[in-house]
């Protein structure tokens, strides 16, 4: 078995000095699509190379499905070795309860503060001055994915932004092609939230979510947002909606739909399908309106374990996830950006290169989960889903419901 050298890290010292035996570590996550599975296999391969064993605990469905299961197991005294979670209230409550492994010493010994970028990602893993999770990538949700061949065959110009897409949607529908593929559930919120950022603009978006600017949320600028959302729901025939986000992306890949609004993780599906960006499909950050990226991402927490061998293996896994070669292999297949910016990305796709350029330009902003609590975000999600599904709900009613949630959201 190939040995994986962990150099100059606390994790290596623990493994080598104690002569700890190989240890199974169960890892729970919600990466189950084709592109996601290919990416997570790179994590497993890197960890297995240390002599330990990644025991995959994938939970089918979305994070909304997986999070309650993960949290229930930890609270119930049946913790996994490591788990994907999003920083926020859920994780903070588990940390405050003393159920998560403190990674501060490892973070200091490996200089995470110097290699993780943007700094907000490590800050999201830090509670009361201590580090409790490992950021593994930088994700952004603000993308529209367009099948160029659909437009070329239809004789319709390939749209360069969301507004051009809306104008061309009737022409695509007239050809018997679904203009916009959408999946049920959280992808609806992703679609409408992306429209929100594109139409309102980043500055206004942050003012509403972070600063709780109620005048802005109830005013004419945000009315334009809900009018744009209204235009989107009129494009989509409910009978064409599919169960999962990757089903919706697959329709675009297959040429059965012209476009889909989804995060950069959709790029992994195009990669698995061996499609080439700029030739077979276009990926437009910020829906092509204003190229921006939010600074969300995936992180791993390590629930405390009474077995000292498991704890040592947890530290090795935490170290392995951040290594340059692991970061590169994982993110090339995931479609996301590495959390460390000293990784050679010359082999990255055109879409990833766009993301890198935006990140370097500083055109990024906090994700909504970094600015507002989960309960309030879930209320907004429900408002969006109801507005999208029920065309009897007016623009004015939806905007008022949204503003009420913003007004009553607790400070973070």
Structure summarized in a few sentences:
By secondary structure, the protein is α/β, with parallel strands linked by helices. It has helices at 10-18, 34-48, 63-75, 89-96, 104-110, 112-115, 119-124, 148-154, 162-173, 186-200, 202-209, 214-218, 220-235, 245-253, 266-272, 308-321, 324-334, 350-361, 374-389, 395-408; strands at residues 24-29, 53-58, 82-85, 126-127, 130-131, 133-135, 137-138, 143-147, 178-181, 257-261, 281-285, 293-294, 299-301, 337-338, 364-365.
Describe this structure as you would to a colleague.
Helix 2 links the parallel strand 1 (24-29) and strand 2. The chain folds into two domains: 10-139 and 296-340, D-Maltodextrin-Binding Protein, domain 2; 143-294 and 365-408, D-Maltodextrin-Binding Protein, domain 2. It is an alpha/beta fold and 412 residues long. The chain is built from 20 helices and 15 strands. The chain has helices at residues 10-18, 34-48, 63-75, 89-96, 104-110, 112-115, 119-124, 148-154, 162-173, 186-200, 202-209, 214-218, 220-235, 245-253, 266-272, 308-321, 324-334, 350-361, 374-389, 395-408, and strands spanning 24-29, 53-58, 82-85, 126-127, 130-131, 133-135, 137-138, 143-147, 178-181, 257-261, 281-285, 293-294, 299-301, 337-338, 364-365. The model is unreliable at 1-19 (pLDDT under 50). The strands form five sheets. Strands 2-1-3-13-6 form a five-stranded mixed sheet. A four-stranded mixed sheet has the order 9-10-8-11. Strands 4-5 form a two-stranded antiparallel ribbon.
């Amino acid at each position: 078995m190939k040995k994986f050298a962990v150099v100059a890290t606390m994790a290596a010292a623990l493994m080598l000095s104690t002569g700890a035996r190989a240890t199974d570590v169960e890892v729970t996550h919600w990466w189950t699509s084709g592109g996601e599975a290919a990416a997570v296999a790179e994590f497993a391969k890197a960890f297995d190379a240390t002599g330990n064993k990644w025991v995959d605990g994938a939970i089918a469905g979305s994070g909304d499905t997986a999070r309650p299961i993960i949290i229930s197991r930890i609270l119930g005294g049946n913790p996994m070795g490591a788990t994907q979670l999003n920083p926020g209230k859920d994780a903070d409550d588990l940390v405050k309860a003393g159920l998560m492994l403190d990674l501060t010493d490892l973070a200091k010994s490996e200089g995470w503060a110097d290699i993780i970028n943007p700094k907000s990602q490590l800050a999201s893993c830090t509670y009361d001055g201590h580090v409790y999770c490992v950021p593994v990538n930088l994700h952004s949700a603000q993308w529209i994915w367009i099948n160029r061949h659909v437009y070329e065959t239809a004789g319709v110009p390939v749209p360069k932004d969301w507004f051009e897409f809306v104008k061309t949607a009737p022409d695509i529908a007239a050809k018997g092609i679904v203009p916009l593929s959408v999946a049920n559930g959280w992808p609806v919120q992703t679609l409408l939230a992306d429209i929100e950022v594109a139409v309102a603009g980043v500055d206004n978006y942050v003012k509403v979510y972070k600063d709780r600017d109620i005048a802005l949320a109830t005013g004419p600028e945000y009315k334009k947002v809900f009018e744009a959302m209204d235009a989107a729901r009129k494009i989509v025939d409910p009978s064409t909606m599919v169960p999962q986000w990757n089903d919706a992306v697959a329709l675009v890949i297959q040429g059965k739909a012209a476009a889909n609004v989804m995060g950069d993780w959709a790029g992994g599906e195009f990669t698995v399908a061996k499609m080439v960006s700029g030739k077979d499909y276009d990926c437009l950050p910020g829906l092509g309106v204003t190229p921006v990226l939010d600074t969300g991402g995936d992180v791993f927490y390590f629930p405390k374990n009474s077995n000292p061998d498991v704890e040592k293996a947890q530290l090795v896994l935490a170290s392995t996830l951040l290594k340059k070669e692991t970061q590169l292999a994982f993110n090339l297949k995931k479609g996301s950006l590495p959390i460390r910016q000293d990784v050679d990305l010359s082999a990255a796709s055109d879409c990833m290169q766009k993301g890198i350029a935006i990140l370097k330009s500083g055109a990024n902003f906090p994700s909504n989960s970094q600015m507002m609590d989960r309960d309030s975000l879930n209320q907004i999600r429900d408002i969006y889903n109801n507005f999208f599904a029920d065309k009897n709900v007016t623009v004015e009613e939806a905007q008022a419901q949204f503003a009420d949630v913003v007004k009553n959201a607790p400070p973070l």
